[in-house]
Amino acid sequence: MSERIDVSIEHKHAPPQDGGRPHPNTCPECGSHYRDDELEANLRVCPHCGHHFPVHARERILQLTDEDSFAEEAAELRSDDPLGFFDLRPYTERLAEAELSTGLGEAMVIGRAAIEELPCELAVMEFGFMGGSMGRIVGEKFVRACEGATERGVPLVSVTASGGARMQEGILSLMQLPKTVCAVEDLRDSGGTLISVMAHPTTAGVLASFASLGDVIVAEPGALLSFTGPRVVQQTTREKLPEDFGLAESNLRHGHVDAIVPRSDLRPTVARLLRLFSNGA
Amino acid sequence: MSERIDVSIEHKHAPPQDGGRPHPNTCPECGSHYRDDELEANLRVCPHCGHHFPVHARERILQLTDEDSFAEEAAELRSDDPLGFFDLRPYTERLAEAELSTGLGEAMVIGRAAIEELPCELAVMEFGFMGGSMGRIVGEKFVRACEGATERGVPLVSVTASGGARMQEGILSLMQLPKTVCAVEDLRDSGGTLISVMAHPTTAGVLASFASLGDVIVAEPGALLSFTGPRVVQQTTREKLPEDFGLAESNLRHGHVDAIVPRSDLRPTVARLLRLFSNGA
Amino acid sequence: MAREAELRLREQLSKLKSLPLLRGARLSGDLERLQRQLDRIVAEPSDEEIWHAVQLARHEDRPYTLDYVERLFEDWFELHGDRHHGDDAAVVAGLGRFRGATVVLVGNQKGRDVKERTRRNFGMAYPEGYGKAMRAMELADRHGFPLISLVDIPGAYPGVTAEQHGQGGAIARAQSLMARLRTPIVTCVIGEGGSGGAIATALADRVLMQENAIYTVISPEGCAAILWRDAGEARKAAAAFKPDAAHCLELGVIDAVVPEPEPGAHADYDEAARLLGEALGESLEIFEGVSGEDLRRQRRVRFRTIGQVSATR
Amino acid sequence: MAREAELRLREQLSKLKSLPLLRGARLSGDLERLQRQLDRIVAEPSDEEIWHAVQLARHEDRPYTLDYVERLFEDWFELHGDRHHGDDAAVVAGLGRFRGATVVLVGNQKGRDVKERTRRNFGMAYPEGYGKAMRAMELADRHGFPLISLVDIPGAYPGVTAEQHGQGGAIARAQSLMARLRTPIVTCVIGEGGSGGAIATALADRVLMQENAIYTVISPEGCAAILWRDAGEARKAAAAFKPDAAHCLELGVIDAVVPEPEPGAHADYDEAARLLGEALGESLEIFEGVSGEDLRRQRRVRFRTIGQVSATR
Ligand SMILES: [Zn+2]
Ligand SMILES: [Zn+2]
């Protein structure tokens, strides 16, 4: 049993076309391969076996919201480098690269939107941006999304995909847990609503803060939702893990999520929740 | 698996000197036999093995409180027979007999007291009165104890020993659960304190109401604290029960009580809690 | 029945006749059914009639919570899990729109076939089930949604893990939470209202019982086993402790009786649901505009004065 | 260190010198120790000094929560259990009188010998431990007792049941509860402040660190394993993410540093406890007379403004 346990990021985004790895459009469950437009047309769910491929933030927003209803907020925010962090490469370089490869300023996109004509605020994470890790800008954007929801009196819908806190910002990244929690508490005190959609993977610092505080929590099928990832648990305990360790299905059985919603039902389900929390409006 | 499960009284007071049963002053653990004054002098704990014999309400009050500090309240209350209940014998006859054998008007004694000079309100149950079952008068007395504690701004100390709700009062006895719960909530809203001491046995309706709502819960060693008793569980599940099923020790391990306090430590422990909840007064 | 009790009953009945609760039934031409129901209440139910109610309350075709949910709620969304250890299928919780407004529902749920019965543990909740109900209650409170609870539980589950997971404390805390809620709560016993398992979700502003439901401190069999030392004497026990709706109303334990179609709710789910919906709707109307603080104060007074002892022996 | 950061640090230091927190140390003639501490903070700790703090924070003789409890509290009464499933020995909760007034304490607890270490799971809490802490917090809130939390946890426990029992959600809910409390909260990191396990009990009005404690988002080994692909590079990782008290103070993550006796708290438990007691006492004094509503508003503002980004890249 080790006392030196990583409880932060462990699921790093597989770089596209990385040497021995399968092509991102090849289904890891059944091996079927698709053109990008085929996958996109099927909401990035394998038509053959139902495997849910990851969805980038921009595409997720298009899937969920009414056409042209999304108005992005705080798009200009960029992370700085408070610690002058340098591992094998400087943090600033990693940031620049992530921005280049995703076209996003950070690992979360926020803004106002409508779903089946019901107004809401959205906060959608991008796993492709440094493993969806939460640094100060992700925390700040989530707080602003809470504030936007409060100001306009609409529910906040978050879609999470994150390996945890961003260790390149050191202890300041840990502080994003209480920061986002406090924002949810303020939202609640104003009578607001948080609908939490957990996509693959929602782990560590994001699972241990705002994502778990949804009034309602729904998960995508097969999503990994665990504080510590299976590899670290395996290495530490040396037990054989249950087959569905940490997956959405296990979380449902153990009482941590309200429902597992296939992607094709996600938009109508969120719309139904928006109707309920807008009290039939 | 039966759908017809008794969740009420099942531990009936063994009638003193009943045919094949051991003498009440014979230790059921180690077989030692004592004169009554010997047991009394040792707080009714077996000097040989530490077994905790039952303690009647009046004696319990003497054990816990400063000399002459106890002033009984609501002693005049007596149960009536709302259903005209008649099983093998009329309820009224059972009541009269219980009063005669215990010298008490009901299965709970309440009043004001001081412990190590700290004022408190006391509510002590008498298992010898119809198995310490909770009917309308027990509920009413507990409510009055809560009110007394609130009025005088002192903590309430309850000492429970009960087989559950008094089925001879039918559904009205079940109503004593919410009744006592509401009284505890009012006490809490006024900033009051409930210190719950669970003696053998604290089960069914009393465990499922006020006794479990103590700010602090302490139990006597070996006390049975379970909603359903072992016999019924055994009959229903047909499994072998854990050796300490439902006992205080098992409850501590499973997180339901704060401490197991040997009777010799009970008075100083309660006094310490009174000091803490009187904020050092 | 004592003369004094009879007088009290007649007084309650006259009040009952003018209660808005029964308006729905009357307006829809159910006067006959209403009269039959009233007759039954006026005439003290016989031991036979009490036992008949016990049997109907347990009827294997009786509608369960989800049967009513699908008939009464729009946009139903079921909540799962206690956020600690499990998702107890013996308790259903969810959000839905009832008569246009969002409400939270918690209810006991029995299974219809053998597989479902096992999965739902014969409707007997584990502590995880009370935990799920409590989570739904907190959600209702936070958003000001009214809470409807449907009670249909033979009793808390007599099992080892149920005890290890603290079912006594769970039942106490569920009641404690209900006593704190600042949102209106209406409970209806729709089948078996068994003991601690029932009261865990029944500390409401208004408590109803369906015509053939029972509400008991212990099962008739359990009572018989203890007092008659013979579980087979369940009929005698039931006759003695009177778990039927008429007696519960007379004793002041419930506020009104919800009519069922003839010969019982099992015969016509749609009509049973319609009548239940009327009763729930009219009950919720009573509390419109009442402040949260007043609601919970009155709720506590209600339970602190139920069955006040009228005299000393 | 960037010039801007250095300026900020110097400003903080001059404030620090006049802080009541350090009065106790000064009055008792510990000026030398104080100066050394200040010197260390002014001069940016070297990579060696950072690693030394990591080692001291994990020193096997370092005082743990209960060592401080026995020296600082009268009438200590330990609370056990989460009221759901277990009593987690890795978390200690209790009531005691601190400087004459009742407070509630929660703290992580490591074991001293092999048996105790196993029993306390090396100080790594299970969800049941956060549950126990939350129950104690609710008690504090209900009675208006101040809450002291002592943090000393390598990290949340990476185990199967910990996940099945929902440790992510448990850590989130513990913070959520702390954000709601209407009673003053003071936290001190007294050893390892590891990741989610630490923050679960550290959402406080005032956060202190002992001189040789560390506060980290991930263990140096974990960070090294991921970023350097070699857990052996822990020193490099620690140097890069700067978990020492001086840096945490500079970053605005903590409010003050609590001095330790030379060469570290393990060398003199009584003196370490005295210095910790001074710091806790003076911290609680700050909040005397502040209303519960103001406390929690300011607490939330504190965490929403920690480490605000000063500029865009
Ligand atoms: Zn596939
Ligand atoms: Zn003995």
Notes on the structure:
The complex is a heterotetramer, with 2 copies of chain A (281 residues) and 2 copies of chain C (313 residues). Chain A is of the alpha/beta class and 281 residues long. Helix content of chain A is 33%, strand content 15%. Chain A has helices at residues 36-41, 57-64, 91-102, 136-152, 171-174, 176-189, 204-207, 230-237, 248-253, 263-277, and strands at residues 71-73, 108-115, 118-125, 156-162, 194-202, 216-219, 259-260. Chain A has a 7-stranded mixed beta sheet with strand order 1-2-3-4-5-6-7, with helices on both faces. In chain A, helix 4 (136-152) packs parallel to helix 6. Mean pLDDT of chain A is 92; it is low at 1-17. Chain C is built from 15 helices and 8 strands. In chain C, helix 7 (127-143) runs parallel beside helix 9 (167-180). Chain C has one domain (2-18, 38-305): 2-enoyl-CoA Hydratase, Chain A, domain 1 (Alpha-Beta Complex), CATH 3.90.226. Chain C is of the alpha/beta class and 313 residues long. In chain C, strands 1, 2, 3, 4, 5, 6, 7 and 8 form an 8-stranded mixed beta sheet that branches. Chain C is globular. Chains A and D meet through helix 4, helix 5, helix 6, helix 7 and helix 8 of A and helix 8, helix 9, helix 10, helix 11 and helix 12 of D. The complex binds zinc ion (2 copies). One zinc ion (ZN) binds at residues 27, 29-30, 32, 46, 48-49, 51 of chain A.
Give the structure's gist in a few sentences:
The complex is a heterotetramer, with two copies of chain A (281 residues) and two copies of chain C (313 residues). Chain A is of the alpha/beta class and 281 residues long.
Topology:
The complex is a heterotetramer, with two copies of chain A (281 residues) and two copies of chain C (313 residues).
Chain A: H1 36-41, H2 57-64, E1 71-73, H3 91-102, E2 108-115, E3 118-125, H4 136-152, E4 156-162, H5 171-174, H6 176-189, E5 194-202, H7 204-207, E6 216-219, H8 230-237, H9 248-253, E7 259-260, H10 263-277
Parallel strand pairs in A: 3-4, 4-5, 5-6, 6-7
Antiparallel strand pairs in A: 1-2, 2-3
Chain C: H1 3-17, H2 23-27, H3 31-42, H4 47-57, H5 65-72, E1 74-79, E2 91-98, E3 101-108, H6 114-119, H7 127-143, E4 147-153, H8 160-164, H9 167-180, E5 185-194, H10 195-199, E6 206-210, E7 214-216, H11 220-228, H12 234-241, H13 245-250, E8 256-258, H14 269-286, H15 292-305
Parallel strand pairs in C: 3-4, 4-5, 5-6, 5-7, 6-8
Antiparallel strand pairs in C: 1-2, 2-3
Bound molecules: zinc ion (2 copies).
One zinc ion (ZN) is lined by residues 27, 29-30, 32, 46, 48-49, 51 of chain A.
